[in-house]
Design goal:
InterPro entries: ACP_syn_III_C, ACP_syn_III_N, FabH, Thiolase-like. Residues 1-10 have a biased composition (Low complexity). By secondary structure, the chain is an alpha/beta fold. The protein has a single domain (22-358), classed as 3-Layer(aba) Sandwich (Peroxisomal Thiolase, Chain A, domain 1), CATH 3.40.47. It is 30% helix and 22% strand. The strands form 4 sheets. Strands 1-7-6-4-5 form a 5-stranded mixed β-sheet. α4 links the parallel β4 and β5 (123-127). α3 (72-86) crosses α4 (110-116). The longest helix is centred in the last third of the chain and has 23 residues, at 238-260. The protein is globular. The model has no long low-confidence stretch (mean pLDDT 94). Bound molecules: oxa(dethia)-CoA (UT7). Oxa(dethia)-CoA is lined by residues 49, 53, 57-58, 131, 170-171, 174-175, 238-239, 241-242, 245, 275-276, 279, 303, 333-334.
Length: 364
């Protein structure tokens, strides 16, 4: 599949050359969540909420939290190692980590992850596009491969929202979980199964304040005034974000479908960012897709940020829900605001290990 189409952004530019014959092809996949399971009942014991409210409003039953001392890179390494194993390789010449919860604000998390995976001297950098980070990461990996800068890229979406969400904030503490998902992409042809392409990416910075961590960046550090502990916590204007998520994900998915010259009915599996089951169902309905084509694991892991799409893919692939040759549409939405979509046809992958037990028993 060709990647980004040429868009006439500047009419005075010379006509762009045709897309190259190199594409990023999916060849490895894995997910990993920390063993500590936090159920709705457990949250209901310390917050003014209930299992019934959480299930009805979000579709979430449980999520996994990192242990004290466990950081995003620890989850990323687990998922990355398993993805390399699934690809049957120990090598990658670039490592990308999409995350909102890097180990530190400087340096990036990816170089440490690369080193811990034995990928010494690989190019390594983070992507910061909140819950759209994995799709932005796919586009970046596809670009590196298409340009001949890299032959094999390890892309990891990893987040530990439990480290930034206020545990007393009932609106957010019930939604987010920790996890990591990873894919390996190799250089291949645009027409082979697993080739990723037809990207739609976008942003709208007027929505900056809808999802944010107010403190910790240059804006706060360069601005005189008190910083309260709350400013270091994640905040989200849920209702507004909900509205934008449904509209933007549906529009972005439609754009990617149009670029590929597909109708919604040509899609076998729709894998949206796992924000909230009601959001996923609304987007699928808007696209005219029956609910059974919408892949969701939000019940078992909650919203895991940049990890959510690869974790949902790993879960579905490990249960053979997605079969070789089927067409898959990925769509994400997140803080920024940011959104993005892309398409791929499912490749032959070796058996993917289950990232967690769907019944809530910690995976070994
Ligand atoms: O990953 C990035 C993208 N993120 C998303 O897309 C998330 C988008 N937003 C959402 O998923 C939903 O807006 C939430 C799950 C956050 C909230 O669901 P909602 O149906 O939009 O509820 P609401 O915010 O309208 O709140 C309804 C009521 C309020 O009470 P009043 O004002 O009606 O008295 C809230 O205070 O529910 C209350 N409430 C809760 N009640 C019990 C809010 N959180 C809770 C809670 N338990 N945990």
């Amino acid at each position: 599949m060709p990647s980004m189409p040429a868009r006439p952004l500047n009419p005075y530019d010379p006509p762009p050359p045709a897309p190259q014959e190199r594409s990023a092809v999916l060849c490895g996949l894995a997910g990993w969540v920390p063993p500590h399971v936090v159920t709705n009942e457990e949250l209901s014991r310390r917050l003014d909420t209930s299992d019934d409210w959480i299930r009805t409003r979000t579709g979430i039953s449980r999520r996994h939290f990192a242990e004290p001392g466990q950081a995003t890179s620890d989850l990323a390494v687990e998922a990355g190692r398993r993805a390399l194993l699934s690809a049957g390789t120990e090598a990658a010449d670039a490592v990308i980590v999409a995350t909102t919860t890097p180990d530190r604000s400087c340096p990036a998390t990816a170089p440490l992850v690369a080193t811990r995976l034995g990928l010494t001297e690989a190019a390594a950098f983070d992507i910061s596009a909140v819950c759209t980070g994995f799709v932005y990461g796919l586009a970046s990996a596809a670009g590196l491969i298409a340009a001949g800068v890299a032959e094999r890229v390890l892309l990891i979406g990893a987040d530990t929202y439990s480290t930034i969400v206020d545990p007393q904030d009932r609106a957010n503490a019930i939604i987010f979980g920790d996890g990591a998902g990873a894919v390996v992409l190799r250089a291949g042809r645009p027409d082979e199964p697993g080739a990723v392409g037809h990207f739609d990416l976008g942003s709208d910075g007027t929505g900056e304040e809808l999802i944010m961590v107010a403190a910790g960046g240059s804006r706060q550090r360069s601005t005189p005034g008190d910083v309260g502990p709350q400013d270091h916590h994640f905040s989200m204007q849920g209702k507004e974000v909900y509205r934008h998520a449904v509209t933007r994900m549906a529009a972005s998915a439609r754009t990617a479908l149009a670029l590929a010259d597909y109708k919604a009915d040509d899609i076998d599996h729709f894998v949206p960012h796992q924000a909230n089951l009601r959001i996923l169902r609304s987007v699928a309905e808007d696209l005219g897709l029956p609910p059974e084509r919408c892949v969701s694991n939000v019940e078992s892991v909650g919203n895991t940020g940049a990890a959510s799409i690869p974790l949902a893919l790993a879960d579905a692939a490990s249960h053979q829900t997605i079969q070789q040759g089927e067409r898959v549409l990925l769509t994400a939405f997140g803080g920024g605001l940011t959104w993005g979509s892309c398409l791929l046809s499912w490749p032959a992958l070796s058996q993917i290990s289950r990232p967690y037990d769907r019944g809530g028993v910690p995976a070994s």
